[in-house]
Amino acid sequence: MGAVWLSRILFGLSALIWTAPVFGQAATDGALEIGECGASTRLCVGVRSDARPFSYKSSPPGEASSDAVRGPLRRAGYTGYMVRICDAVLVEMVLDGDPLVDLKFGDIGFYDIDKAAQATDAAANDGASPSGRFADLGKRFDILCDPATITNDRRDDFSVSPPLFLTGISYITRKGAPQLGRICADRKRSLIGLVGGTTAATEGIRALLDAHELPELHRPMIDFLTPSPKPGDVKLDSCGFNPADPGFKPRIQTYKTHTAAAKAFCDGEFYYLVGDLEIITANVRMVPGCDYENGTSTYTNDRYAVFGRTRPAMAGESPVDTMARRLLVARFFQIMSQKVVFNPSILDKAFGDTFLGVSPSRKLEIFFWSVRGERH
C-alpha cells in the first residue's frame, strides 16, 4: 500500500513540475484549453456568464485577475467564486493520475447556461432560472458550477457538495434617489426589481414579508406571490391598475439577467433591487457612477453548493464508458469535499481571489470556521 501511494505522490509531483510552465504560458498554448461540450466530452461543466461574482464570463478571456490557478474554466473565459472552486478541483483531477479516472484537459468541456437560455425566446424565459438549470443538469451537463441554493428536493435528486458559501436575500436603494412617496402615485416606475426564477422572486419576497420589512410594499408583494389569473381573466393590481393598459409598469418588475436588473436599477426604473446580497451589489458596482445604500441586513440564510448528475449514455457509448463518466462525477465531488474541509480551505482561497481586499462578514466568517476550523 505504501508503495502505491508513493508512486502516486511521485506521479503527481512530476505532473505538477511538467505542468507548471504551461500554467504560466500565454493562452496561445492549447494544452489547457477546453471548448464547449460535445458528443465526445467526458465531463461537462455548466457555468454562467451572468451570475457575478460567483460564475460569470470575464473580459477579456484569459486575463488573470489574481494569483489563482488558471484552470480550464478560467482559460475558457469564466471566473468567479464558484468557478475558482470548480477549476481547482478539475486541475486536481487531471494531476491526480488516478488510473480509474484518467482525466485529461481535453476531456473537459463547458456549457454556458445563460448563453443557451438566450438562444430562443422560450428558453430565455426559463433557461437560466433554477428550474431550467436543474432540468438540464444530468441531460446537457454533469456539474452545475453556479451559485445554487441547497434545498431539500435538490439534495434528494442530485449529488451535492458541502456548503460552499453563505448568503441571504437583501435589498438596496440608489444613493441620493428620491424617497418613495405614495406607492400608487407613479405609474411609470416600478417599486421593486429582481431577477425572475431566482430565490429572490419567491423565498426572498416571502422573507421580506415575514420580517415585516418595507411594510408599505406588503400589498404589492402579496400580489406578486399570488398565482396569475387564468388566460382571459383581468386582475387589477393592488393599486387598481390594469396590466393590459398601455404603459403599465408592474409594481414588482422581473428581469431575465442580473446585468439587466442592475442597469434598470441604476437608470431609476424602480426603487428597490432585491436579490442575493453579493450578487446584486457586485452587478451594481459594474455600472459606472451608480452608488447604492442599504444592503446591511439579510433576511434569509442560503447555502450555495455545487450540484451534479451524470448525463445518460451517449450514442454508441459502451456501458463501461458510461460507468467511467459516472466515476468522474463521483471523483469530482470526492476531491471537492476534501479541499473544502482541509485547512487552509479552498473556500478561503476562492474568497480572497474573488472579493479582493474585502473581509467576510461575521456570519460568513463563522460559516467558514464551522467548515474548516480555526484558520491556520
What's the short version?
With 376 residues, this protein is an alpha/beta fold.
Classify the beta-strand content into a percent band. Answer: 15-25%
- Principal-axes shape call: globular
Mean pLDDT: 83
Determine the fraction of residues in helical runs and give it as a percent range: 25-40%
What would the CATH topology of the largest domain be? D-Maltodextrin-Binding Protein, domain 2
Second CATH tier, the architecture of the largest domain: 3-Layer(aba) Sandwich
Run of helices and strands = HEEEEHEHEHHHEHEEEEHHEHEHEEHHH
**Biggest pleated-sheet summary:** 7 strands, mixed
| Count of separate structural domains | 2
Give the CA-CA distance, first to last residue.
Answer: 30 Å
- Strand tally is 15
* Rg, alpha carbons: 23 Å
Number of helices: 14
**CATH class annotation of the largest domain:** Alpha Beta
Give the helix/strand class: alpha/beta
The CATH superfamily of the largest domain is known as Periplasmic binding protein-like II
The unreliable regions are: 1-29, 60-68, 120-127
Keywords: Signal
Signal peptide: 1-24
Protein name: Extracellular solute-binding protein, family 3
Organism: Kaistia soli DSM 19436
